Amino acid sequence: MTVAASDALSYSIEGRADGPTVVFVHGWPDDPSMWRNQVSALGGSYRCVLLTLPNYGASDHEPGGCDFPVIVERMHRTIEQLGEEAVILVTHDWGAYIGYLYEKKHPQNVKTMMAMDVGGHFEPSSLKTAAMFVSYQWILATLWLVGGVVPPLGTWLTRNFARALQVPERQAGSLHSRCNYPYFYFWRSTLLPWARSRLLGQYRPQCPVLYIYGADKPLMFHTDHWLDIVEQAGGKHAAIEGGQHWFMEEQIEQTNQLVDDWLRAAT
Question: Which domain holds residue 239?
Fold first, then answer.
């Protein structure tokens, strides 16, 4: 079943209709299909709800994208539509950031969370790391602006830059510049003092979090302090050896085992 509504997020439901509800949230440059291996493994026991962020996959095209508070509220309306008092979140990349924002504002609606590859705290460990982080994000934010003026050029540049970042062709080939809005809104809020309240800030989860990350990446999106926070909140962290950004598509068995063990303990 697929649902689309202007005041909510598009979503589809797979798996066991009467099972515990697990809500999956993707990030850039993906769509809900990135979770296919996890849904295949979990569908016999869980009700799997796959959200589609605006402008991704088959969702409605919104030229202006969505700032983070808007996405959080649309996500909240979506979860209310599901008829569940509290759900389990599985998130990745910008989806993880949005999941943290959601749990921060609506903690009563989240039983537990599995966040992948992007932590709730990030601080560059060196000048080189900071330069890598800022440069690729600013490029994507700039291509968002270019695409607002000349859409074909913005999309062409976005796809080629994604390939330069070694984004798999399955994702890179379907990208367009309107998918880059999280980078634009993140940096706009970062640079405008009156807009910083829209960002995550000093976040501490109020539910247990399983944080999973690829161990073989040139740029880590978490700090040791974040790993400590996860443990203090009753969660745990795990590194996927040999894993990079899309370990849930590459190290499938290891990822699914971690997720399944965590879900069994949570439910």
Answer: 2-125+201-266
